[in-house]
Specification:
This protein has helices at about 20-30, 85-90, 110-115, 125, 160-165, 200-210, 225-235, 255-270, 280-290, 310-320, 345-360, 390-400; strands at about 10-15, 35-40, 55-60, 65-70, 75-80, 95, 135-140, 145-150, 175-180, 185, 190-195, 220, 245-250, 275, 300-305, 325-330, 335-340, 365-370. It is α+β, with helices and mostly antiparallel strands. The protein folds into four domains: about 5-60, no CATH class; about 65-185, Uridine Diphospho-n-acetylenolpyruvylglucosamine Reductase, domain 3 (2-Layer Sandwich), CATH 3.30.465; about 190-290, Alpha-Beta Plaits, CATH 3.30.70.2190; about 295-375, Alpha-Beta Plaits.
Length: about 425
Amino acid sequence: MSLPTLAAFAEEFTPATQAELARFMADNAASRQRVLYPVGGRTALHFGCPAVEPGVAISTAKLTNVIDYPARDMTVTVESGIRIDALNELLRQERQRLPIDIPQAHRATLGGIIACNAGGARRFGLGTLRDYIIGITAIDATGTPFKAGGRVVKNVAGYDLCKLLNGSLGTLGMITQVTLKLRPIPETTRWLWASFGSFQEIETTLEKLLLSATRPIAMEVLDPSAASEIAAEARTSLPTDGPLLGLAFEGGAHEVAWELDTVQGELKLRNPRQVVITPDAEADGLWNSLTEFELTAEEPLTFKANLLPSRTMEFLELATREQISVQAHAGNGIVIGHLPDRVTNAQTAAGLLTPLRRFVRQYHGNLTIVNSPETWKQDIPTWGEPEPSWPLMQRLKDQLDPQDLLNRGRFIFPAPIPMDRG
């Protein structure tokens, strides 16, 4: 039996405290041994393989306490069920932030985004979630709490379970509490956009910009279709007369003004078609639209590819030939792609994805499915080609959850389905 989403489960447990959750998990492991499916804001239930059997959805909706916030130390300790918008509001009072771009921040929870390793455009200049987690508490499938790290930035004791749980999709333990290091909110953030005649021209431009004295925090590349969609959602204007390069700068007002002037002078040497600076009043809306692009619901399938940054423009060229709408975190080699509406079945989708997957594998990457109809996942490998690290990950899963009670079947551990069938 294939369950369409975890929302289909009739049984749900919502603990009021971390101790109550630990007792429930201990009792379950010792008696009925039901499969447990962690849920937070339910923004990523589509992510991963479909659940193959009923179980208990464990919600962190009540685990929202702020444990400690020594603002002068620029750290915060909170329970994992806190919504990202609520966390941002708390930090904003002290002019601080967690500089990670999170889709559907009004619903997403801290534990959920860690489990899914969420992130967006700012990763180029400011890093990813794993760079900000300095302490973590979780409960394994037997109900035993375990901790890693602490409440100080310079904490190096023990194994780095903070990074191990990041991206584990709730298969190794239920994250219950997290300590984060923070950054100050910048005085100014600005976007500059330049359109070009081809992705190859952007590649040449990026090579030159790597020698620039400016330091962008984001380096995005969009095809005209993605640019049009993102601009419409943000109610702003972006060039759509060719592939688009976006550079974001933040800091003091004078510093950002200098960076914009400098990079505009450097871009003139590359002969862009248009150069546009997003007005301050529209910057927040644009950031939000760029972040939400990954979860746009109208398209039949969304994928995420990672590969060498030096090969990203070639990949974009290959994808856009098939009318795939693409957004690239160009400095990191990460591409989000939406298949066109003409794709109406898994076989057609697999046909488009196969050459893209082959290209990515050539350059030490992989292509995974972010969102698609559940029935398509029988014909398309959700997690892409097997990675050399998968056997090690399986051994870790066996050690931390030997009864396979946490998120059974939803991560990489089942044998992947090959896309090439002869």
